[in-house]
Amino acid sequence: MLQDNGLLFVYDISQTPDIEQYVKILFSCAGFIVLNNIGNCWILCKRALLSFDVPKVKGYLVKEAETPAEIESYFLFLKNRYPESQNYCREIDDLFTHQSVIFLAYPEQNPSQVIGVARYTYSLAEYGYYLPCQLATFCEGKHTGKHLMLPKNVTSIGESLSLYDEKGTGKKGTSYLVYQQLIRAILTYKHDIAHTEISYTTYPKGDETIEALYKERFGFKHTLHDNEKVCLKYGTFAGQWYLIELEQWMIEHQYHNADQIFHKHKQAFAV
Fold first, then answer.
1. Closest CA to 198 of 136, 161, 241
2. Per mean pLDDT, which range of 33-47, 98-112, 135-149 is the poorest?
3. Local structure of residue 193 (DSSP, 8 states)
4. What is the DSSP letter of 47?
5. Reported confidence tier of residue 55, pLDDT bands at 50, 70, 90
6. Within 10 Å of residue 111's Cβ, how many Cβ atoms?
7. H-run or E-run covering 172
8. Measuring CA to CA, how many Å separate 122 from each of 17, 119, 216, 226?
9. How far apart are CA 91 and CA 96, in angstroms?
10. How many Å apart are CA 252 and CA 249, to the nearest integer?
11. Pairing mode, if any, of strands 116-121 and 221-223?
């Protein structure tokens, strides 16, 4: 689709799962020449649905939260574990619910008492840039718990609970100060700018490739402390859809090798 001197590719991954191969073919043929003549390129993708088996944990009963009451139990558990003094905010958690699957854990001897929660969230693994996936933690105490194996198609853990743990339970390089900034930034963006659902991703400080892919003109802002190694980008993902921008100067100067689009920095967020 041509519009405003640009090119937009639209993919539904549930119907076209091998998007990486299709885009590589495009760029390996006349793609770069065409795009240099047209202008910017946008790739709009629809996330595939999550599919997995319910985790089995010895000593626990684990089930997916499906009813409103069960979902409310999830939020109540987090509210009790992470008080306001640790920046827990139901509104922030709600931002990620629409793209997540929530699990509740009960002790076998008392199946009515929720003693732990987990949430699996979509990732953008085909590009190497991940949306948050909550750390799968079943807690008997405030900071103790058992960790589950993640489904094979989930590649990122720890981001969401890091919002509320002062010492951080997320990936290497994240910190409490960064997530304090994220909370303030998300609330500002949601109420003052977007008025819609938003999400976020992280990237190493100084990574110009990812900075370019999430430019502010597409609704993404960033927060950065001088003493931090991780930046945050956040913006509108429009439900199950997400947008990747390839500007003309990027095509000309940065992405002559299409593999860079998909594989550069893929190990940067390894847990």
1. 241
2. 135-149
3. I
4. P
5. low
6. 11
7. none
8. 15, 10, 22, 30
9. 9
10. 5
11. unpaired
Concatenating the DSSP letter of every residue in 204-257 gives ETT-HHHHHHT-GGGT-EEE--TT-SEEEEEEE-TTTEEEEEE-HHHHHHT-SS
For 163-216, what is each residue's pLDDT tens digit? 334 443 333 333 333 334 444 444 443 444 333 333 444 444 455 544 444 443
Q: How many CB atoms lie within 10 A of CB 234?
A: 23
Yes or no: say if 71 and 77 are a contact pair by the CB < 8 Å rule: no
By DSSP bridging, strand 241-246 and strand 40-46 are antiparallel
What is the number of residues in the chain?
271
20: left (phi over 0), alpha (psi -120 to 50) or beta: alpha
pLDDT: which is higher, 203 or 56: 56
Give the position of tokens 């010492």. Answer: 167
Cβ neighbors of 66 (< 8 A, separation 6 or more) are: none
**Rounded Cα distance, 202 and 200, in Å:** 7
d(CA 251, CA 35): 8
Higher pLDDT, 261 or 56: 56
Query: Residue 266: pLDDT above 50?
Result: no
Q: Which range (202-206, 240-244, 263-267) has the least confidence? A: 263-267
The domain defined by 60-167 folds into: Aminopeptidase (3.40.630)
Provide the pLDDT for residue 68: 82
Whether the CB-CB separation of 40 and 246 falls below 8 Å is answered with yes
- Its pTM stands at 0.39
The residue ranges of every structural domain in the chain are: 60-167
